[in-house]
Design goal:
With 258 residues, this protein is α/β, with parallel strands linked by helices. Helices cover 34% and strands 21% of the residues. The protein has nine helices and eleven strands. The protein has helices spanning 11-19, 38-52, 71-76, 88-96, 129-138, 149-159, 173-182, 228-238, 244-249, and strands spanning 28-33, 55-60, 83-87, 106-111, 113-118, 142-143, 167-168, 187-191, 201-206, 215-221, 253-254. The strands form two sheets. Strands 2-1-3-10-4-11 form a six-stranded mixed beta sheet. Strands 7-6-8-5-9 form a five-stranded mixed beta sheet, with helices on one face. Strand 6 (142-143), helix 6 and strand 7 form a beta-alpha-beta unit. The two termini are 13 Å apart.
């Protein structure tokens, strides 16, 4: 990827130091995560629990949007959490609202924007800007998750077809993919990591480079966390070499240099 988020100098040493800290085997960390990093998280989590003795419970929410199931809405309703994992834009909003422990946010991985089609359907030509534009114009309906609203608005505007394409925007990325799987939308446009390994759809490819929006996913400790040290260990693990294989398998690239 051309756009990469680099950890500060010495970050690898800091991560190693955190992972080496002793933690009570009775610690329980509560995580709220959005869809983009979920596949990598599910793949890596068992190893973290096995090697640390820390138990992790997980709830899910959308990174952004106005619905009741966004991560921000869950926190405002008093949902207990020690760690949030979500896209950078949504995390920035929580930081501005003082819902995050200052200085604990860390980029974990990034992914490109891709296109999903229903399994078994022919894959459309999205290899160039012109081909992608024609594919969108031929599609009856496009699904985009709520967190991708600004992205699709920008893409359609740059293509000059803002009023010519029907866009459905469900709250969650999983639902936009599900719409394609059911046949309720012809295409879904969203982070690649939210497409790969999802049932009923196939990955048609990434959108053209000139239109790309790199999605960065980050983790942070929630203000008021009851397990801050265990939370730091989880974030350090997810940003370490131990999670690299899971991150790449999910269609993402680690944010820190390798």
């Amino acid at each position: 990827m051309n756009k990469r988020c680099h950890a500060p100098a010495g970050a690898a040493l800091a991560i190693a130091a955190v992972l080496a800290l002793p933690t009570s085997s009775f610690a329980q960390v509560k995580v709220i995560i959005s869809g983009g990093f979920s596949a990598a998280y599910r793949e890596a989590l068992p190893e973290f629990e096995r090697t640390t003795g820390i138990t992790v419970t997980t709830a899910s929410g959308a990174s952004q949007g106005n619905g009741p199931d966004t991560i921000g809405a869950l926190l405002r309703r008093g949902e207990p959490a020690d760690v949030v994992i979500m896209n950078r834009q949504g995390l920035a909003e929580l930081i501005a609202q003082d819902r995050i422990v200052p200085g604990t946010d860390l980029d974990l991985a990034q992914t490109l924007i891709g296109v999903a089609v229903r399994a078994g359907r022919s894959k459309p030509d999205i290899s160039t800007v012109d081909a992608f534009r024609e594919t969108l114009l031929r599609a009856k309906t496009i699904a985009v998750p709520g967190s991708g609203t600004s992205m699709i608005t920008d893409v359609l505007s740059r293509l000059g077809i803002s009023t010519e394409v029907a866009v459905k925007i469900p709250t969650r990325g999983t639902e936009s993919v599900a719409m394609v799987a059911r046949g309720d939308a012809e295409l879904a446009i969203q982070p690649v990591s939210e497409i790969l390994h999802m049932p009923g759809v196939e990955f048609a490819g990434s959108i053209p480079t000139d239109l790309q929006h790199v999605s960065v996913y980050a983790a942070a400790i929630v203000a008021g966390s009851k397990e801050p040290e265990a939370a730091r260990r989880l974030i350090a693990f997810l940003s370490s070499d131990d999670a690299t294989a899971a991150i790449k398998k999910s269609g993402m690239e680690p944010s820190r240099p390798r």
